[in-house]
Amino acid sequence: MNYEYSHPRKQNLQLDSLEEEILLGLQICGELLVQSKDIMLGALAYQGWLEHGRCLVIVNLPNVKEVSGAIELPMGLMLHNDPAIKFFGAEELLKQYNPQTEGILVVSHTNSNYCIACACIFAPSFPPQICYEEIMSRPAEFDIS
C-alpha cells in the first residue's frame, strides 16, 4: 500500500505553528488510516465509484492531538461534484486517480474557527474491487455502518 499527499492550497498560505502542527497531525492520521484500514478505505472508495462515479473518502478528526494507532472514526464519501472538493484542494486528485487501483482520502479537522484538511491518493493492499467484494462477503467481520 502507498499514499501520496497533495497540498495545493498550502503553497499560497502563510501557516503559523498551530496550523503546521494540525497539518502534521492530519498527515500522520492519514498514514495510520491507510496502514490500518486500507481494506475498509478501498472498499468504501470502490462502493462510491460504483454508486456515484469519482468520489473521495473523508474522515473528520474531532481532536488531532489524540490520534492513536487504533483509529475508529466515521468515514464518509464526498461526490466529485460537491462544492467542498475545491475547498479541500482535491480537484486535481479526482482527475488523476485510477478508481480501479486507488482511492482518495481526505482527513480534516474542523472547529468553530477553521477547517484544515489533507488529501492523499492511496493504493490499498488489494485492488479496491477486491476490498469491496471481501467486505461485502463477510459483513460480520467488518463494521460497515
Structural description of this entry:
By secondary structure, the chain is an alpha+beta fold. It has one domain (2-7, 17-122). The protein has five helices and five strands. The protein has helices spanning 17-36, 38-52, 84-87, 91-96, 128-137; strands spanning 2-6, 55-61, 75-79, 103-110, 115-123. Helix 2 (38-52) crosses helix 5. The radius of gyration is 15 Å and the shape is globular. Mean pLDDT is 80; it is low at 6-13.
Question: How are the elements arranged and paired?
Answer:
Elements: E1 2-6, H1 17-36, H2 38-52, E2 55-61, E3 75-79, H3 84-87, H4 91-96, E4 103-110, E5 115-123, H5 128-137
Parallel strand pairs: 2-4
Antiparallel strand pairs: 1-5, 2-3, 4-5
Helix pairs in contact: 2-5
Strand order of the largest sheet: 1-5-4-2-3
Order of helices and strands: EHHEEHHEEH
Helix segment count?
A: 5
- Distance N to C terminus: 24 Å
Quick check: average pLDDT? 80
Strand content: 15-25%
Which terms summarize this structure?
145 residues; alpha+beta; 5-stranded mixed β-sheet; 5 helices; 5 strands; globular
